[in-house]
Amino acid sequence: MIELIHASKRYPNGVNALNDINLKIDQGEFVYIIGPTGSGKSTLIKLLDGEEIPSSGTVNVVGINVGKLRHSKVPLYRRNIGVVFQDYRLLPRKTVFENIAYALEVIGMRKDMIRLRVRQVMNLVGLDDKGNSFPSELSGGQQQRVAIARAIANKPKVLIADEPTGNLDPAMSDEIMALLQKINREEQTTIVMVTHDLPLVNKHKKRTIVLEEGHIVADLQQGGYVQHD
Amino acid sequence: MFNMISRFFRPIKEGFYGVGRHAAMSISSASAVTITLLIISIFLIFSFNLQQFTKDVEQSVQIAVMIDYAYEEQSQMDKIGIDIGNIEGVSEVKFSSKEDEFQYYLDGFEDEAQKEVFEPFREDNPMHNAYYVSVEDGSNLKVVADQIAQIEGVDSIDYGGESAVVLVNALNSIRTGGGILAGALSLLAIFLIQNTIKLTIFARSDEIAIMRNVGAKNGFIRSPFLIEGIIIGILGSIIPIMLSVFGYIYLYRIMDGVIISKMFVMIPPHPFVLKIGGILLLIGMAVGLVGSFFSVNKYLRWKR
Q1: Label partner for B273 (CA 20 to 30 A): which of A3, A55, B44, B189?
Q2: pLDDT digits (tens, 9 = 90+) for B218-249
Q3: Is B239 in CB contact (< 8 Å) with chain A?
Q4: Would the pTM count as exceeding 0.95?
């Protein structure tokens, strides 16, 4: 499903963000990627969603060599993956319903099918009654749930979540985690979640990949992470 | 089917929203178009009229060919006429007998008494039989005239001399210069639009990033901005179109349809003003389209 082979990323300013990363994630897996600031977590996400091109090595997602995509083909690739960001990135002038529908309009889905699918995902994330609200009228946790609903609306095979609980309190974070696990279970979506929320990682145990200074320093299949000094 | 229609109308709808949402920016872009189109309009009107003058001048310039007294047999004169007609660039050859010429000469006098003075010469006509030759292109008047002068039996030729050629050439080069200037002004307008639309796009950079994140293709993102550019172009062309249509009609009326002398006859306003209006509208739309195309592309390339 996701495979990085000797992937490295060196930015033009000389920073080596990722060094020789080899990583394989199978379909239906739920994986945490953790590490301190500057460890290369964000760069890894950017390689996966096609925003950055690896300096060397290959990045394969759903059978597509992401680094070799032409600029005009990147959007088509993104229809296979959903991305959730720490800052939600909702369109402020569109309602919740419109925000979610937007991801489907973009791929040219028919209006009546859009309506059906939007209701479906709004129900999945537990926001049935918020369709006509604007993002600014919602709490952070609710906005993140809208962002998740938008990301999964077109049934992507992979969901990438970049610090989805970064701006939320622990109770809300648990809600979001429950939701992501439900999506992982019910829609068989592969989920890659970048976080530095260690209590969360230890509470909901999943396969955990630890990044430090651009290297994978641990890949714990059983999950849980004990900080070592 | 329904889907296709909504796909067609979406960018138009969004384009109008865009113009409204960034009203101040749209107005400033539109006024950049307005100013350039005004200048282009002046040049268009000037240039089309000049073209018309040139044509008039070219058409009115004729070569008068006088036939030698020794070649007054009908067959000889016919041969000269055919020879002139065979020269490349000659569009029309008209014959005028020496009697016609004499009458034409007499008609030139307004005073009846003066006509009487020349009446005795009717029997002993001093005029030549003549051909009047029109040429297709005024700029090769001299070449044609020189060739006619070579024909056997031609006594002399007269074509208003070098001055006609110089006038035609001068008008032509003014027209070319005007065209180049109008082209340069269009480029300037594109540049102005590009800059202003770049600002409206910058204001919406988050939106574009989100669009790409959810998998919108470049064309999908670009089309509303292109429509927005076209709308701004149309808005910007309203004032120039109005001014040139009514301005030209007014000018035509107060100038009585001529400039300086009867030699320069202005193009009648109908349907000329509609043509100018149409051209201005097209230039405005094209400038808006090209300007926004460049700036959206620049932004799309900036982010992967």
Answers
A1: B189
A2: 888 888 889 988 998 999 999 999 999 999 99
A3: no
A4: no
